[in-house]
Amino acid sequence: MTPTQDSPDIRWSGAGALWASLEAHGVHTVFGYPGGAIMPVYDALTFFPQIRHILGRHEQGSIHAAEGWAKATGQLGVVLATSGPGATNLVTGLADAMLDSVPLLAITGNVASHLIGTDAFQEADITGITLPVTKHNYIVRSAEDVPRVIAEAIHIARSGRPGPVLVDIPKDVQLAACEYRPADLRPHPPLPPREPEPAALAAALELLTQAERPVMMVGGGALDAAAEVTALAHAWNIPVITTLMGLGAFPASDPLWLGMPGMHGSVAANRAISEADVLLGIGLRFDDRVTGRVRDFAPRASIIHVDLDAAELGKIVSTHCPVRADAAQVARALKEQAPSQIPERPDWLAQLEEWKGRGHHPEVWGAAQAVRQVVARLGPDDILSSDVGQHQMLAAQLARFERPRRWLNSGGLGTMGFGFPAAIGAALAEPDVVSMVIAGDGGFQMTAQELATLKHADIRNVKICIINNSYLGMVRQWQELFHGERYSEVELGHSNPDFLKLADAYGVPGWRAEDSASLDEALEGWLNHPGSALLEVVVPSQHHVFPMVPAGASLSEMLETEPVRAGVMQTGTVQDSPDGVEAPGDDMEAVPIMALDAQRGGER
């Protein structure tokens, strides 16, 4: 295909080649915000009506929406931005996608090639800036390279451990005439699943065969292997822990499920890790919020670690049996080698059942009770997104996911403002289910402008729930427990907007609840409204999230329930209390003295 000599056609330019390439790769929805340096691309978009563009209100909102699309579907998310501030506004989302292994393609415009390096208007070295937070990035030097670069970028974003790739296209390259044929736009064939080495598989099988107290820990890298992981657990009768990113990879209704591990994990999950003799980790990276004090993580266990990324094997915890392979391939192979008679493990399973009954079960009105009432209304196919903070941990603790990709959150980067635009992306990907977001009053205000996106794109299946405790709740919790109750710059209440009026200004109806009874009534109106809607739940500020492992402590030193304030401390809530304050080490910061006093029932 070529432009005519007398009448250049934007369709047969670098910009047109971009859209033709995206269409050839099955992309039919993109998110973005136009500007001067990417204007030719938006001009060419008018000739590709089969591709839907969702106009956000801020580039960060657009990239989080693209992440939400990708996390809900497992497919590529695509976002566009202009040069300079438009491109730099994508950096947080790129870092978020990198840490959470999200397949994402970011396309930015740049100033014309001859202006690059001259500090031209709205110029930024976006490839240099984003080098640490992308799997790969490109600056396209000629229009003829566009199809090849897009094919390579999408292949890289999707292959192996997924991640974000950025393609930067100078304005003159977008405008330049370009010849391309259908064959030039052909996607790269997907890589075959990586199979485990026989020796590694044999070593894993030997450890599982000898195990008396095994536990499986499943992360976000196994979401697409949920069926194989479930079959493996049943064949070997192994209890399963799902990380924050792995929730849904194993059905929560299964008796073998122990919950989430780590800083705000379940008692059963953290105790199981501390007492297991074999830990089989599949598709996770053993990050600090999961391990607690690394040297005391799973102290009695031989660790099998299955991951596609060789860099993760042995990076954080010592791994007795590293297996670099596709999660589904390994789970399938281990299941096929399971003993003909399923191991019963009565003592181990009985102990786990006792631990399942322990933890924090508040009976008074607060954020935990509010989140429990809200998530109880989710259907099995509905999608729950969260922002970052106390409400995020409560939602992860209290929601029950029966299948993967129903839970979307910012795990590795912990990005406030993520939840609402991610719910928008998920809602567009799956318009026939409810896309619910639980946000805090702080985080919601970081991307609240995306309320306009609901109206502009006529999105009708987003349900926004704001848990309003008038504080930056998680920061307040740490300041209370670990910083002598010195509350520094965390109170929001006097400056918070009226969230119902804010929503109404964008044409979104709202409900408010201030206790359990009024919440039940508000939920009916909020969920039954035939369109997107907002629910504000006003809760006390002083309630915290437990169980909790203090920073620098081991999982066995978790606070199972909230310490009594004003010097009246609870006793008998924790096994194996620590002997004293640890000096700051390489793995985590020191255990705060107040947390240890609370654990031991001592005086402040």
UniProtKB/TrEMBL annotation:
Q: How is the cofactor bound?
A: Binds 1 thiamine pyrophosphate per subunit.
Q: What residues does the Thiamine pyrophosphate enzyme N-terminal TPP-binding domain cover?
A: 14-127
Q: Where is the Thiamine pyrophosphate enzyme central domain?
A: 201-334
Residue span(s) of domain Thiamine pyrophosphate enzyme TPP-binding: 387-537
Q: Which reaction does it catalyse?
A: 2 pyruvate + H(+) = (2S)-2-acetolactate + CO2
Superkingdom: Bacteria
Give yes or no: UniProt keyword Protein biosynthesis: no
UniProtKB keywords: Amino-acid biosynthesis, Branched-chain amino acid biosynthesis, Magnesium, Metal-binding, Thiamine pyrophosphate, Transferase
Query: What cofactor is this protein dependent on?
Result: thiamine diphosphate; Mg(2+)
- What pathway does this protein act in? Amino-acid biosynthesis; L-valine biosynthesis; L-valine from pyruvate: step 1/4; Amino-acid biosynthesis; L-isoleucine biosynthesis; L-isoleucine from 2-oxobutanoate: step 1/4
The record, for Pfam families, names: TPP_enzyme_C, TPP_enzyme_M, TPP_enzyme_N
Catalytic activity, EC: 2.2.1.6
Q: Which Gene3D superfamilies match?
A: 3.40.50.970, TPP-binding domain
Q: What family is this protein classified in?
A: Belongs to the TPP enzyme family.
Protein name (Swiss-Prot/TrEMBL): Acetolactate synthase
**Lineage, opening ranks:** Bacteria, Thermotogati, Deinococcota, Deinococci, Deinococcales
